[in-house]
Amino acid sequence: MRKASRLSRFNIASLALGLAFLYLPILILVIYSFNASRLVTVWGGWSLRWYHEFFNDRAMIEAAWMSLRVAVSSATIATLLGTLAAVALSRGERFRGRTLFSGMLYAPLVMPEVITGLSLLLLFVALNAERGFWTVTIAHTTLTMCFVAVVVQSRLGSLDRSLEEAAMDLGCNPVRAFVAVTLPLIAPAIVAGWMLAFTLSLDDLVIASFTTGPGSATLPIRIYSEVRLGVKPEINAICTLVIALIALVIVIASLASKLSSSQGESAAPL
Amino acid sequence: MSARRIFARPARFAAIAPYVWMVLFFLVPFAFVLKISLSQTAIAQPPYEPVFDPTAGWDALKAALAALSFDNFRLLASDDIYMFAYLRSLTVAVTATALLLLIGYPIAYGMARLPKRWQAVAMVLVIVPFWTSFLIRIYAWINILQHDGLLNQILLALHLVSQPVVWLSTDSAMYIGIVYSYLPFMILPLYATLAKMEPALEEAAADLGAAPWQVFWLVTFPLSLPGVGAGVLLCFIPIVGEFVIPDLLAGSNSLMIGQTLWLEFFTNKDWPVASAAAIVLLAVLLVPLLLYERLQKRQLEQGR
């Protein structure tokens, strides 16, 4: 009885309002993407017209393809590097330059994107690198590996270390103990890290604008230039497709982590 | 005991690849920003006069050092536009962070008081919008806030206003966009500390005769301060440098520093001034950044 009374009416109201605030705008956007009318004011019945328009828009399709390639490649490299970084920070006791290392990993999480983007562009220009797919991929990897590192590190921190020690007492060398014992246990966090990196890359406008070259715009760059000109129903359709893709990735990943982890504990979101 | 030691060595090798990557693509680029902020603007491609060529030897280096100019920083200090932009960025960030705390706290508090099973569901519900694209969420608000958008239609239908209100290109629209985008960053750390709190403490205070608001102010809030600190930093720092939200939702008569930097870079093609603006922005954010690093480190490594 006491437990139930902890939740006051004020608590319920703020939760309901908060969630409504978070979800209603997205819901409205999705509904209007199926509006047959060009005007947002008028509901012209259900229609797939704007999806049609998107699939006939070559420039948009190309940008979407570019974004997908960048997101998959940068998320994969970032997951590898981020996991290594997390292992080094949570298992590799002390090493020289450790403070600098963790500093470099945590700073990009909050660093304004205009700074990160500008600094990377100046590096690429100085190196005379041709700007396009690879420069954006490198830039996104640099940003997202920090998120992966934090997600994996918080999982590593919550693991029972005696499991690894037991494996080594039983004759595993450290690398083998890591592969056989630690890796399966942190797999859900690694999957979550990859997904987070994927969506962050798919989403990024500022860093991509700085680091891309002429003729290789990503989807957010194209969407942004269209949005600046005003609301277009086609953009609603593209946004709905992106939301659907991200929702799909989340569902797959949460299923995967459910299958691979018997423990109920989930990795921290950030 | 000894196992832990042995494990530590290969783990150290794991640091090499990410370490090299971050030095190369995070640390070194700042040197370039610094260098170019000290060089002259030129009408060229790339649009700045190189002042430093490491292959040219010692004399060239001395000449280069002599040629370094602080003109760009002098320009930033003397031109009102930049001072206003920094001030506006800080004002917007402080106001928005206060709003976020005010709105996020009750939600996080409600979450922490849910039965355990529902807490997990609520957490997922708060995180999911954070996963959907930032740009899309801002665009969703443009749909709602535009002249004949849903908000005006509802207000008109309810006879709360007699003619459509101008929402887009106003500060209110910008604050709505910022609060909407950053809300999960405020809620999650708050929820994390509130959920860990022992309910018996509040009950004890209530049993000893404290009124509900006293219980909150004297027990709950002080105990949640670490979460408040984390949430505030997580929102404040990126908001100061925010570009997309003010650009799409606020009016164009007063710019934030992220917008000024963008404008200098992409429109005016003045890379040295843009770099100088970035250096100053970094200097402004240095203290909050260091605080945030300390917090993050303590949180992730306290289990050690």
List the topology elements:
The complex is a heterodimer of chains A (270) and B (304).
Chain A: H1 2-5, H2 9-32, H3 49-55, H4 58-91, H5 98-110, H6 113-127, H7 133-158, H8 162-169, H9 174-203, H10 206-211, H11 219-228, H12 233-260
Helix pairs in contact in A: 3-12, 4-7, 4-9, 4-11, 5-7, 7-9, 8-9, 9-12
Chain B: H1 2-14, H2 16-37, H3 57-67, H4 71-78, H5 80-113, H6 116-131, H7 134-145, H8 150-157, H9 171-196, H10 199-207, H11 212-223, H12 225-240, H13 244-249, H14 257-267, H15 271-301
What does this structure look like?
- The complex is a heterodimer of chains A (270) and B (304).
- Chain A is an all-alpha fold.
- Helix content of chain A is 76%, strand content 0%.
- Chain A has twelve helices and no strands.
- Chain A is globular, with a radius of gyration of 22 Å.
- Chain B is mostly helical and 304 residues long.
- Chain B has a single domain, classed as MetI-like fold (Orthogonal Bundle).
- Helix content of chain B is 77%, strand content 0%.
- Chain B contains 15 helices and no strands.
- Chains A and B meet through helix 2, helix 4, helix 5, helix 6 and helix 7 of A and helix 1, helix 2, helix 5, helix 6 and helix 7 of B.
User: Mean pLDDT of chain B, rounded to whole units?
Assistant: 83
Q: Largest interface, and how many residues on either side?
A: A-B, 105 and 102 residues
- Largest beta-sheet details of chain A: none
Number of helices of chain B: 15
The level of helicity of chain B is over 70%
How many structural domains are formed by the residues of chain A?
Answer: 1
The CATH H-level homologous superfamily of chain B: MetI-like
Helical proportion of chain A?
A: over 70%
- The CATH C-level name of chain B is Mainly Alpha
Tell me the Rg of chain B in angstroms: 25 Å
- At CATH's second level, what is the architecture of chain B? Orthogonal Bundle
Please tell me the overall pLDDT of chain A. Answer: 84
Radius of gyration of CA atoms of chain A, rounded to a whole number = 22 Å
CATH fold field value of chain A? MetI-like fold
Order of helices and strands of chain A: HHHHHHHHHHHH
CATH superfamily of chain A: MetI-like
Number of strands of chain B: 0
Strand content of chain A: under 5%
**Shape category of chain A:** globular
